[in-house]
Structure formats: structure tokens, C-alpha cells
Amino acid sequence: MKVAKCMLTLVFAFCAFTSIANAQVTVRWLGGGSSALFQELGSAAFDVVNLAPTALTPGNGCLWSHGKTTSGGTPDITALDNRTGVGTNDRGQIFVAYDGANPGCAGGTPAANARIYAYIQLDSVLGDRCYFEAEGATPGCSLTLTNMVGAPGTSAITTQPDVPAAIDLNPTVVSTLQAHPHFFVAGTDVRPEDAKFAVMRALSRCDQYMPRQFFNNDSYYLFGLGYQTVNPNVGTPIAGAAAYGGGSFAVVNFNLTGTDPISGFAVPPYAVTTIGAQPIVVAVSPVTNSEVAAMTDITASTLSLFYEGVLGRTNDLLGTPGPAVPMQVLVREVMSGTYNTFEYSVPQSTQFHAGQDNGNCSGQTVASNPMLINSTGGNVPGAVRARVIGTGNGTATNGMTGNLQFPVGGVVSLGYFFWSEGNAKPLSNVKYLKVNGIDPLLANNDYTSGGILPGSGGAYGGHTDPGIAAVTFTGLNAGDYPIWSALRLVSPPGDPGTADIITQLNANVNPVQHDYIVPSSMHIWHSHFFINGEASAIPNPANGPSVGSTVLCTGGTAEQGGDVGGATLLVTNNFNFCHDFVSTQGKLNLTF
Hints:
The protein has 592 residues and is α+β, with helices and mostly antiparallel strands. The protein folds into 3 domains: 2-184, no CATH class; 278-477, Periplasmic binding protein-like II (D-Maltodextrin-Binding Protein, domain 2, 3-Layer(aba) Sandwich); 523-592, no CATH class.
């Protein structure tokens, strides 16, 4: 019976694909995931449909984008997990870029052979799950679009306003997306293997010991996070604190190979394309506070202590006697690639063995959901660790838009986010810190701008915005800055829409925005490793044969295994190791 069902759905899928290929309007690229990539991908998608030589009619590209929606609102947009018994809807900002319509972007018949590129901002783990989830022959979450009439765009991409502004999304584009809604792209700032482990950890009891890496199994254990329920594959949603924008993300299992753990259907094949290397910046706010104005650097050990809830005063960061202003420490959701990159690079590294969710358990289950717990053992009123959902909430005051800032309630805030011009542009009252004396953005540790985020327009105490062109990532590319990741797209092997986006990112977006180090210029890579519990899917890790056009390991095997928190390797070191020791996997099993 199940075989017959699969054959029937396969025939249906083939017919659907054929109709997409022959239709006047095609869904060329559809997915979701990493908030770190939302700004860049939106700009790139618009460039695909607006600039020569890729646009059907150069200058006639359309871009519609919108902030996170609410249930029953106008519009109401979600990423739906289609699996029986799951049915979760997750929300986030969205962009839709498409080739110019006739007579305009808002209405009329779209141009012949018009293409649609759409992406919803979730987080990295959800993006990966929305790629791999399978219920039937057509895998992937579904983009649901309702109440779209009377829903003008809101220019959610900071660096690229909607074109034209404040119009409804073209009805034909809406109906095409509704007819062919399944995701086939994921944006992620962690490897799919790391995303899978994040779900495994969230679905594990707080008292469950989890060896993440087999080569450290005598000394490197961590605990589950306690979001499990009676259903072994669906956990309690991870919520954000209401005062910090609220929101929530579902915790649902998925597999990378073989069959789906919930439906039993085959998961899709995939390829991982590296976009480039991007740092996480550690930031404090407001710059109008004299304590914040004096901050320039934070050691990794101090940063770890803040994030495990031990420290909570401004003079803990400054390291000097003085006023003890309480600090709120903002913690991203555990399904986020940003959270996981930060987690295993600093507090949960093999050096510190701590964690951002330290103390947030009650027996076997999570204690505070949303997390909003006292730091310093409750001895400093106002010093808290608070969960924030998404980059936007992490850099906003009470989730409000406009001149976004970290503080809530008049205390000093400490947070982190992946660098990009789009993420930094509105943060005029925020400054970034060096970590262990290393500037992640400017050349030669040139901190003369006082930590003002390039492109933000911020200023304080004689310091001014150094401008986007000052961003060189010198310290990062030298291998000295510890908190970074490779940005990636997960898609079907040879996916043409992904190739369109990558081309525009490297040709037009990144040269202007200075958002990441392109793969061909990367001198750094992460050591990959086997992750405990994934032996059947990924039995043998490998660093991969190349990074962009640079040979990483002559004759190297395909990249696989975890790498979030993997030790930073110089590309040349890995190349020489492969040569000297006749390896095809590279220097493995090294972590921070």
C-alpha cells in the first residue's frame, strides 16, 4: 500500500514539475532559514531580476518584502511543516523578488518567463529542517500566503527598499507561490550536521549527558536543554521574552539522509554551497552610557561568564573599579545558527565547558521558557539573561522598529549578531567590542572609530562611523578572531536558482556591502568532526577538497561532518597536512 502511495505521489510530483517548467511564471528559488543571510539574499535576489545580464528586462525588477506577520493578520505568512502530526507554522520576515510585470509590479500579467525568488527569515536549524522534512514525494515546508490583498510591502531589507514602494504583491506571483509552495533552499550559518545536533540537544532531558564529539568523550560532555515532550520528535516551542519582542520557534526532528523520522518518506538529496566567512560581533548599548563608552575589549573568559549567568555588572566587563550598572545579557534561540556558532566558540567550547542555558533547567525539563533569569545569583537587580528570537528582536528595543537599540528598561545590554551592513545599518546607538584584543571588522585592529558599527551613522565622544569601505576582516582572515562561521545555502545538487543568487552576491552585493570574505579570498576554514549520534548519516567527517577556488586538500573527499566550534585552520596548513600525511580528509577533530 505504501509503495503504491509513493508511486502515485511520484507521478503527481513529476506532473507538477512539468507544469512549473512550462508555466509563464516559475518559482525559480524558494526557501528560508538564517536571519544572518536575509539582508544579503534579498539584495541579491532583486539584482538577479533587475540587473543585466540576468534580468529579463533590465531595470524592471520587482521587490516586495514584509516584516514578521501575525496569525489572522494582513498579510498572514508562515512556513508550514507538512508532516502528519506536526503542522507547525513558523513566521519571519519575507522577501519576494520577481521579473518585471506588464503594466507594473503590483498588477497585470507578469512578463513572459518571469521568475520568482522568495525567502522567509526563520533561523538556521528551521531552515535546514524545512529543506529536509518529507511528507510524500515532494519534500520541504510549504510557504503559506493568506490575506495578501491590501498588504503593501514594508521594505524589510535595510539596504534595498522595495521596488516600487508600498505595493501589494502581484496576484499572479501570489497564486504561483500558493500553487508551488514547497521549499527547496535553506539558508544556514551552520552545517546541516550541526543543525541536526541542535535539535537532538533541544529534544533531550536536562539531566541527559550528551557526548558531542567522540574524540573528547572522556572530557567533553554537555547536557540536553529540556524541551522534550511525550512525542520524541516534537518538542516544546522555544519562546522569546515578551519584553524583548516575544515570538517562538518550533522544535521538530528531521534527518539528513535515509528516511524522515516522522513520516518515513525519503529525505531529498542535497548540496551545500559556501557563500563566505562572516564574523559574529559582540555588541553593547547604549553608547550614551559612560560605562559603555569606556568599553573596548572583552576576553573570551569574561564573555563566557556573562553568558553562563555568573557576571552581570558593567565593571565586570571593564575590569576596573567603578559604577556597577546592571547588564542584561541577550541570548538567541537555541535553534539559531547564531546561537550555536557563539555557543561552541565561547561558553560551550572545550576551554570553558559552560553554556548560554546554564541554570535554566528544573529537573529534566526547561525551567524558564521564555528564558528570563537572574544573573549573579540574583544579587544585582536588573542583571538578567533574556531569550530573544531572531536578529531583529536581539537588536531592538521592546521589539519596536525604527532606531533600533539594545537596551530595555534603562540598563546596559550585551548581545551578539552576525555582521552585515543590513544588520548594522540601523544600530546608531550600539558599539561592537574586540574579543581577546582582536577587531573582527577593521584592519590592523584599527579601533579608532570606538566600535561604532560601520554604516550605522552612529557617533559618540568624538568617534564617528568609519564607513562600510573600512571593513576588511583582517583579524578574522588571519585566524585570530574566534567567533565566526561559513554562510551556506543548502539546495538540490546543481540548483540553477542558487547559482543565480551566488553570482549576484559576489558580483554586486558583497563588493558594496562588505558583508563577508568570499571563498576565493578565505585564508581560514574550520576543522570538521564527527558528531555523536549521527554515525549512520555521517560516518566519516572531512574538511572538503576546496574552499571556493582554493585547493584545501588535493584529492580531498567531500565536505561533511560538524564544524561549528571547530578550530580555525589556515587553509595552507590543511593543504600541507593532506600532502605530508597522504590524507584526503584533512586535519580533523580540532575544536575551540
